[in-house]
Amino acid sequence: MPESLGQALLIANANYSDKTLNALRGTEVDIRALEAVLADPAVGGYKVQTSLDESIHMLRQRIERFFVQAPKDGLLLLYLSGHGVKDRDGRLYFAAADTESNFLMSTGLAATFIQEASERSRCRRQVLIFDACFSGAFARGYLHKSDQKVHTQESFSGGTGKIIITASDDMQYAWVDDEIEGAAAASVFTRHLVQGLRTGAAANDAEIITAERLYQYVRERVKQDNPAQQPQLWSFGLDGGLMLARNPAPKLPADIVELLEDPRPRVRVLGIDEMEKRLLEARLHPAIGVALEKLKDDDSRSVSARAAEVQAALDALQQAAELERQADAEAQRQAEAERKRLADAEVQRQAEAERKRLADAEVQRQAEAERKRLAEAEAQRQAEAERKRLAEAEAQRQAKAEAQQPTKKKGWDLTPAIFTLVAALLPFFLMNSAKQQDQPAAPKAPETARLETPPKPEPAAPPPPDVAPQTEVNLPDCATRDSDHDGVNDCDDKCSNTAKGMKVDEFGCPIRIELKGVNFKYDSGELTDTAKTILDKVSADLNRYPVKKNIELRGHASSDEGTNVYSLRLSQQRAQTVADYLKSKGVTNKLIAKGYGIDYPIADNNDEAGRAKNRRVELVWTGEY
To answer: Looking at the structure, do residues 212 and 274 belong to the same domain, yes or no?
Structure first.
């Protein structure tokens, strides 16, 4: 059996979901006929892949694999039949089954895609054949654009060892035979293509069929059927002809030819008998058929009768072969349909699996969000309970400390002073009383004067009790300790274990945390691994603080990261990134992300080291909540 000449990928699209793209009659007939002749060992024995009415995704995948996975030796033949469409900018696309004419870039098969796949192939001998009906013309003579050229050469130029054959290069309909409505009709171009290969007529009496000879054969016959259609050929990087197929109809053996040309009828009959013996050699059928066609009109009745008998046997063999070929084609069509059905089912299964995966992921996401919400609520409740417990403990501690202080006197104790004053004034009082007794008596008043004796002194009050001497009060040990060295003693420190060097308020809680090391790369709002390590420690410290305050996260940018508006947005993004990360680590403080752009640098923006320091985020306490 002759060796295979190469690989072939045959693509045809007859039906389209886009109603603006007409269905193409006979496209399946074209591709099946070409498939049969190319696979024929007498012609080329190509390893043929077929694609009928497939999606754009499948077409791109097939074409790329066909070219990229091809071996270096051999020949690659790509055939494409269907609609060709140009966009507003004149770029050429081929329509797939699901192509949308309004969205060619995403749903069409771009000519540049085929070109790039072709150029990536290791195989240096390639033939590209396009039998495309350009949708710019829906009827004869109607042109959609003023530019009537498809410019195939421009669309596929480049590469080496490549021949491109097209049904036409104008924006015209690639005509099909006029048939009874409803019957399948083969393309004029593809029909002559198949005929030239199958009969060997394109070989022009040579042993092989080159791409150039096939093109000349097809061009002449297409112009005979439809002068308006002009097939085109372009060749790139080829020296000489490129063998496309073998001539399946070689000449009759010389001994048979000699018998058939003998002037004696009896000898010519012997030649016919020899041809009958060779009927089982299918490759000789075309040559035998031509010879028998001439001999049926022979002057000798015996010769013409014998030729008619062998012709009938030949017709029966060819009919049986055609039926077998059609059965094989039908079996292959059914297999292709089944493959497509299975592929569609697999796509649907995968789509359903993806839908279920997304639904499960959404349920899981909602469950995780609810779990996180409950965890945050529980953390907030515990933090509030802890704050209340600490407040009560602090009130109790202060009450206990106040109870340990010496009791202060509410007023002055005058008893000692009164005794002292009475003791000092008593001698003067007694002396004055004696002087009054030595003086003459005053005249008596009309009424009997009453001698008033001085009042008896009140009994002396008991001596004041001894006042206990004041002793030095021993304060609690916490008043003299500062465990975290933040300048606030342990008794008043409500935020113990503050990081060393951190600025704190009167309660020992941080006022402002400079997140040193939490810097960002140029024009980036993503945290580095170093920054995440630092924020992990910060979040752990914040989760230990009993007093919860609002925290403002201030984002900054360097002067070289864009305009003021952009830098402000970038710094806001950085602040929000840090806030989101702290929340993910369980921080329950109210976090307020705010961007300050380039307004507050801490280093020189004239060198990269300074600018790197300015791409930062700071943490500032703003008040209790």
So the answer is: no
**Residue-wise burial string across 432-469, b where 16 or more C-beta atoms lie within 10 A, e elsewhere:** eeeeeeeeeeeeeeeeeeeeeeeeeeeeeeeeeeeeee
CATH number for 529: 3.30.1330.60
Which two tokens mark 478? Answer: 């916490």
For residue 588, what are the domain limits?
481-624
At residue 223, the 3 state secondary structure works out as: helix
Higher pLDDT, 192 or 157: 192
H or E segment at 374?
A: helix 301-403
Q: How many domains does the chain have?
A: 3
Report whether 604 contacts 543 (CB < 8 A).
no
231 with 219: CB under 8 angstroms?
A: yes
Quote the CA–CA distance of 125 and 6 in Å, as a whole number: 10
pLDDT above 90 for 589: no
Task: Give me the chain's average pLDDT, please.
Answer: 80
Q: Does position 136 have pLDDT exceeding 70, yes or no? A: no
Q: How far is CA 558 from CA 75, 257, 564, 605, in A?
A: 60, 94, 10, 7
- Counting other chains too, the contacts that 277-280 makes at CB distance below 8 Å and 24 or more residues apart are 279/310, 279/313, 279/314, 279/317, 280/317
Whether residues 267 and 285 share a domain: the answer is: yes
Query: Looking at the domain assignment, is residue 328 inside a domain?
Result: yes
* 226 and 114 housed in the same domain: yes
What average pLDDT does the segment 254-262 reach? Answer: 90
DSSP state of 88: T
Least confident of 315-319, 418-422, 553-557, 592-596: 418-422
Residue 74 sits at φ, ψ, to 5 deg, of: 95, -170
Instruction: Give the per-residue pLDDT at 507.
Output: 77
- Does residue 158 carry a pLDDT above 60? no
Q: What is the pLDDT of residues 432-466, one digit of tens each?
A: 655 555 555 555 544 433 434 445 555 555 555 55
Shared domain for 329 and 181, answered yes or no, is no
Q: Which of 196, 215, 246 is the last residue of a domain?
A: 246
Q: What's the rounded Cα separation, in Å, for the pair 332 and 36?
A: 11
Query: Is residue 495's pLDDT more than 60?
Result: yes
Residues 485 and 619 in one domain: yes
Q: Nearest-5° angle of CA 249, CA 250, CA 251? A: 120
